[in-house]
Amino acid sequence: MFTNLINRAADEDRVLFNLIGCFAILAAAFFLGTESASAHLLDGKTPSTFAEGLLSGVGHPIIGPDYLAFLLALGIAVGVFRLSFFNPFLFVAAMICGVTMHVAGLYLPAADLIVPVSVLIAGLMLIIEERIPPAWWMAVFVAAGIFHGYSYGDSIDAAEPIPLIAYLTGLAAVQVIMTVGVAFATGGLWKLWSMAPRLAGAAFCGVGFAALVTELIHSN
Q1: Which ranges of the chain does DSSP label H, i.e. alpha helix?
Q2: Are 79 and 185 in contact (CB under 8 A)?
Q3: What is the pLDDT of residue 59?
Q4: What is the model's pLDDT at position 41?
Q5: Average confidence (pLDDT) over 189-201
Q6: What pLDDT sits at residue 220?
Q7: Which of these, 67, 51, 171, 84, lies nearest to 119 by C-alpha position?
Q8: Torsion 127-129-133-135 (CA) sign
Q9: What b-and-e string marks burial along 135-172, b requiring 16 or more CB atoms within 10 Å of the CB?
Q10: What are the φ/ψ torsions at residue 212 (nearest 5 degrees)?
Q11: Domain residue ranges of the chain, discontinuous segments joined by +
Q12: Is the dihedral of CA 28, 213, 114, 161 positive or negative?
């Protein structure tokens, strides 16, 4: 009987790892299929009006699969693992600091590489589940926020003050709404199936890995 229990647990682990692998591969394939379409809403043009800045700020995190994956991971972590709702606001505050650093001309090395790495780390942390201390999540959110913000700054670098303010407003608003909304949506629902956060984490790992490989190829 004891042997049967061990064999059953081993079979369940194999099924879980196979599912995690499949989700990661599918997510990587999805990223590679959409990466070419995730250009700025304004075709790379710097926003010149309040409306353009707001539209660009709202759209930027949504059309970038790696940015979107991290926001979903943040929301899921807060909702499923009962992290503080202060975390999304902390991430957004750090992100605004990152944008400000870019606009001010400060140099932050390897920002475009750290963005996909942060997605990969967040995915792995979701797979590991509740054994990670909340302070570690907070540290990842703050660090990622700065690098994500610095990367966002590419699209608004030469903008005038009004479109810049509009961009930051849209960027902050959409990320707070999305992460808090995901946190509320997943807080109770996903508790019904404990494997769900791990499968989501696997998908985010796939996106992060594909984004990292793509960025390394483009940087050479």
Answers
A1: 2-34, 50-63, 65-80, 86-103, 111-128, 134-152, 161-189, 196-219
A2: yes
A3: 87
A4: 57
A5: 75
A6: 66
A7: 67
A8: positive
A9: eebbebbbbbbbbbbbbbbebbeebeeebbebbbebbb
A10: -65, -45
A11: 2-219
A12: negative
